[in-house]
Design a protein that fits this description.
- The protein contains seven helices and no strands.
- By secondary structure, it is an all-alpha fold.
- The protein is elongated and about 90 Å long.
Length: 196
């Protein structure tokens, strides 16, 4: 239970930080659009003037979209109370994919905006850690999916045991004796599991 409480506190902190980052991305996007409108209204729509604003616009969109999905993930984590859900695994995979794809798209937009002004590698750096983080999140999504399946199968096993306890206690007793060697060893095992 302590781990679950810690997870909820951390999820709430991360949700607040993610919402702030999403709002920052939205602000950058709106500011960049307003700046583009002013540039076109003044008739200064030259590539050298437009390129940095378009790059900032792309970065703002990436920041806003990315942290929208991060906020959604933490909101669902708080709501469900456990990390092992199929929805949580799917959201982790989405986070992983967009952690890889969005920075690359922003770089492509920036490279196009700066075409003929600066070489593509000088425009905007794609951090290797973003790509690595994306793959780590995808791997974590598969681990979460696997854990969720295990938990669901374990839950079904517990329901089977409860059914046997109620309707066929002699079969359950025979099975426990076969697995643990004696009824006492089975009782000791289950009492130690309850203490945990």
């Amino acid at each position: 239970m302590k781990s679950l409480r810690k997870m909820r506190v951390l999820a709430r902190i991360m949700l607040a930080a993610s919402v702030i980052a999403c709002l920052a991305g939205t602000y950058i996007t709106v500011r960049s659009v307003a700046e583009l409108i002013h540039i076109f209204a003044r008739g200064e729509a030259e590539r050298a003037v437009l390129a940095p604003v378009i790059t900032e616009l792309a970065e703002g969109i990436v920041l806003g979209v990315h942290y929208f999905f991060v906020s959604k993930f933490f909101l669902h984590s708080i709501r469900h109370g456990v990390p092992f859900t199929h929805e949580g695994a799917r959201e982790l995979k989405i986070l992983g994919l967009e952690s890889i794809i969005l920075p690359v798209l922003a770089w492509v937009v920036s490279a196009i905006a700066y075409a003929g002004i600066q070489p593509p590698l000088m425009v905007m750096e794609i951090s290797a850690y973003e790509i690595v983080l994306g793959f780590a999140l995808i791997i974590a999504s598969y681990m979460t999916e696997y854990g969720t399946d295990k938990i669901e199968r374990g839950h079904m096993g517990h329901q089977e045991i409860r059914y046997l306890e109620e309707h066929h206690p002699e079969i359950l007793k025979e099975a426990r004796t076969a697995v643990f060697g004696s009824e006492e060893a089975a009782a000791e095992y289950y009492s130690s599991m309850e203490e945990r």
